[in-house]
Each structure stands twice: as C-alpha cells, then as structure tokens.
Design goal:
Blueprint: H1 6-25, H2 28-57
Helix pairs in contact: 1-2
C-alpha cells in the first residue's frame, strides 16, 4: 500500500504560499516558521517516496 502523498504536496504548496505572503507583508518571524515547516514537509515527502520504492523492490 502506498502512503498518501497528495496531502503532503498540498501542505507544501499551502505553507509555501503563506510563507511568501508573510514575507511580503513584513512578518518575517512567521514567514520563517512557515518556510521551515514547508521544508520539513518536503523531507517527509521524499522519505515516503523512498520508502515506497524500497517496498516495491523487496522480494515477496
């Protein structure tokens, strides 16, 4: 069974939008928070993709 990746992609886009929005409004502390959350969610997505590839390649 593959792990759901659509939620991660949607969160990355949403957090990235809020980060850019807060940067343009001058609220850098909140923007940095959203940027860090988006980057961490990107790492989670990459790890899920690697895990799915490893499960697909292991013998049954």
């Amino acid at each position: 069974m593959t792990t759901p990746k659509f939620i991660d992609i949607a969160l990355i886009i949403l957090l990235g939008y809020f980060a850019i929005d807060f940067f343009t409004k001058g609220r850098t502390a909140v923007a940095i928070l959203f940027t860090v959350l988006a980057v961490l969610n990107t790492f989670v997505l990459v790890m899920k993709i690697k895990q799915d590839k490893n499960r697909a390649n292991e013998p049954k």
